[in-house]
Amino acid sequence: MDKVAFITGGGSGIGFRIAEIFMRHGCYTVIASRSLPRVSMAARKLAAATGQRCLPLSLDVRSPLAITAAVEQALKEFGKIDILINCAAGNFLCPAGTLSSNAFKTVMDIDTLGTFNVSRILYEKFFRDHGGVIVNITATLGTRGQVLQVHAGSAKAAVDAMTRHLAVEWGPQNIRVNSLAPGLISGTEGFQRLGGLQAGLNAKVLASPLKRLGNKTEIAHSALFLASPLASYMTGAVLVVDGDPVEELVTQPGWWLRPGRARLASSSGEKRLQEEEGLTSG
What we know:
Blueprint: E1 4-8, H1 13-24, E2 28-33, H2 36-50, E3 54-58, H3 64-78, E4 83-86, H4 101-130, E5 132-137, H5 150-170, E6 175-182, H6 189-194, H7 198-207, H8 216-227, E7 238-241, H9 268-275
Parallel strand pairs: 1-2, 1-4, 2-3, 4-5, 5-6, 6-7
Helix pairs in contact: 1-2, 1-8, 3-4, 4-5
């Protein structure tokens, strides 16, 4: 592939698997997260498994100064960046009626503003003059209502809108911008937090024509497609990879009130998000 991919949230979950799949296809990667020890360990694992170079960087997507420093370091190391994967995200469960403005803003700042920050700075530093590909990892939350997720759904919907606008504005500079919206994906931090009761998970599996959940490798392959020449005439699109569920149990109003429900996080979730430095990657 002979490309360089800059991946925010690349230290774990979907972002980590995207980095691995890209590297197995000959791509060098830069994986960025606020936790340098965590992302450094991830980079060592990726390099050992694939034989490709992986540069770990400390980065807060809410800080333009930190993003600028990281992008400049990546360009110094590799001389170019061909692909940007915006995978950094923050989320927790919380009823809308008890969601604080600060908690809502925190998720918007990470998911929406963070995506714009990294995209804009990479545009200024390299893409404007050389072209490139941006893949924004969003979610079906942006198009399908779900209890306890008004903050995340709003943030993801905004990113999908951003995708369309940037695709139009930056297309003349040979920059393609697309969104990739996964459904419920097993083996991710988001799945562990947001999956719900076992009975609910069983219902979701049955709701899919494929009768199973998705996995991280399938999302990584979808990202690889969007970043590759196979999608060279595709921009401003939202690629949904969710097994086409016919209904979502979690849209039922009583789901989160049932005994044994997933732990709510009106205050604890916000605190945990802050403790984890605001970033998850799926």
